[in-house]
Amino acid sequence: MTVPPTRTDGVVAAVSAGVGGPLGTRAGGHRWWTPVRVVLAIAALTFALGMVQKGNCYEDTWTDGTARYTHMCYSDLPYLYTGRGFAELAWPYDDDAEVRGRYPEVMEYPVGISYWAWATADVTHLITGSPDLGERYQRPTSEFFGDPTIQREIRAFVIVNALGFAVLVLLSAWLLAGVDRKRPWDAAMFAASPALALTALVNWDLLPVVLVAGAAWAWARERPVLTGVLIGLGAATKLYPLFLLGAVLVICLCDKRVRDFVLTTAAAVAAWVLANAPAYLTGPDEWKVFWTFNSERAADLGSIWLVISQATDGVDVSTINTWSWLFFGAWCVGVFVLGVLAPETPRFAQLGFLIVAGFLLVNKVYSPQYVLWLLPLAVLARPRWRDQIVWQATEVLYFASVWWYLGGYLAPGGGGDSGFYWMAIILRLAGELYLVALVVRDVWLPHHDPVRRDAEVVPPDQDTTTRSNAVAV
């Protein structure tokens, strides 16, 4: 039984007027085009449009320092290919003095991203003819980015990663469509997301996204060990999936499932340790860079701390670290209290979304691609097109603003800080808080929750077996 969005979502119902209106009680379906296959097709198209959007930068191999901002096609991948040693296939956690002399800047990401980047660099070398690395070792690394041969590799490196990301997007969409078998169309809000198209190629943030989607899928299937493994692998790729254990804790306390919480947590810890072991054993100092880099980082792009720092005489890094963690700790306590006092046990995605949103709201850096962290949780937590459009509109506005800010196009004519960029940051945070407020209301007043309310649209005794296997919207 599939809940038809044309009968439950006002935006979808209005759009459907141009193709015959909402689904009727006698509507038929298509044998091949099931909801999940339609969602996957939408996801493929969205990702393809995102690749096209990066075309201008791809053509000049990201060498035009102006175009990457005017065309909003910046990506970290090309610069890290030469800047972190992948042009020489250097292991990210190699502690050899000669390697570190050539590449003093170590990968500042968790191990999952470093492994993926190194593996895709290896594939890049294979498909570009296995270049002579001995010759490269004799040259200064400062020459690499402008070298035509290496530029060809950079483009191949981006393509290899993009193809891998495309698989991750499709897998994420498939997993999200399967979280609730009655609601496969909720995943269409992920698949058709403009934020997904714009930010998918900025960095490697799609890696934790698929693991979070997998954790939500596994939890819905009552597989606590698999959920824990995916959370642990996600935390080894980006820190934020670790916070999903808070959602598991609340649910397990409400439903008296202590054993499931223990299994999930143990599996998460084991998976995280095993994933980090190769990096730590080969280069413990290099492995620690991620943790020291983040603790020493000042207020950065997208964060409310940047607005405060620029609007005042600056804020000390230690002060930001202390207050951001205090605010986040208080936020988590609030989510915990909300969850345990709610009339009905909150859903995994609702709690997960609230916790991750709180982390981003008070974090000292909020890069444009971090919207991907929230996207799979948001579409499951509040599956309404209107609310997703409102929130993602603020994300798209910020995406444009950050590149124009970095390009100097938002700078006031008389000098000083860019108030327009501050406004974009505040609007982005306001859009996120709007979605947070709706999810909090849904948890506290469950009759507002679309997932619980829409279940009443199709009577449980109505025979919809045929329709559920076809395109029924």
TrEMBL record:
It is a multi-pass membrane protein. Its main location: membrane. One of its GO terms (molecular function) is hexosyltransferase activity. This is Uncharacterized membrane protein. The keyword rRNA processing does not apply. Keywords: Cell membrane, Membrane, Transferase, Transmembrane, Transmembrane helix. InterPro entries: GT87 (IPR018584), UCP010361 (IPR016570). Pfam families: GT87 (PF09594). Belongs to the glycosyltransferase 87 family. GO terms for cellular component: plasma membrane. It is found in: Cell membrane. It comes from Nocardioides lianchengensis.
